Amino acid sequence: MIGMVLGRTVRLTLLGSAIGASCGLLVLRGAGEMLYGVGPNDPATFLAAITALLVVALAAAYIPGRKAARTNPVDALRAG
Fold this sequence. Notes:
The protein is mostly helical. It has helices at 2-28, 43-70, 73-79.
């Protein structure tokens, strides 16, 4: 059960990161002069940002996923 929650979290986070990175590359072409010490197309920066986002998303999904895994499905259906 927790694997399902974390798997869906990873898929959605990677999809959002891909869309965000694509949009970010388009925006950074015009904002390149505002960056100090980093190029507008620096792959290490993009990879670090995506990795940090993935770690935070997994941490945020783990606690509810663990709680859902411990819940009896019959009890959850009765309460809803």
